[in-house]
Amino acid sequence: MSEPVLRLKGLSAGHRGRRVLHEVSLDLAAGEVLALVGASGSGKTTLLRVLLGMLPLDAGSIELAGRRFEPRSRRRLGDLADRVQMVFQDPLAALDPRWSAARSLAEALPRGRDPAVLPALLAEVGLPIEVADRRPRELSGGQRQRLAIARALAAEPRLLLLDEATSALDVSVQAQILELLERLIAERGLAALFVSHDLAVVRRLAGRCALLDQGRLVECRPTEELLRAPEAAATRALIAAARFAAADSPGPPPG
User: Fold this and answer.
1) Cβ neighbour number for residue 204 with a 10 Å cutoff
2) Could you tell me the pTM of the whole model?
3) Which of 39, 64, 106, 179 qualifies as a FRET site for 122, CA 20 to 30 Å off?
């Protein structure tokens, strides 16, 4: 079995003098999607910020694609930037509104890579070449998210962070983006960490699911197994809340 793309060992971190994550350990393989779920304030965003190099480690270590980072290492977490990319919930906020699609992609290319790859990147995410000269506000919501995904891929990452990457889309577009992500992760052999509150989407995309509660990893098991027979009280509460929200939802508007 090959070495994991991402390995966290006893990771502890926080900000403003407050410890948020406590001894989190997990592995993530190439081609695998691991969902990260938990109540608000459980530490999901803090973990993403650590992996993006935005917050320091207090303890433990991160191993990413053969590179090890720990509190006293000479390596800086900012060096993760060339191996980790994020797809955000709102692509309109993540993309520079002044730049064309082509420029957004060109700016993300690794140094020395030929810009001739841009048409292929657009095609890979299902965008026609005509969008290359358009700015984000000239694109539909689904097109913007496809562009954001293409921009993440342009950097040639090993780890893809997906922060509620489909929750702002309507149901039909959401299904298309999920299908696209499934294909790209498999074809490119990416490791993907998927943060979401939507357990139906988690069930669709993630083979395993990890639950954070007050900064601690309390469960990490195959998704179907975890959702069918949760062991931790926090997992049972999260599933019950999701079912209540679904039952209380008014559903899609008529027409």
Assistant:
1) 18
2) 0.91
3) 64
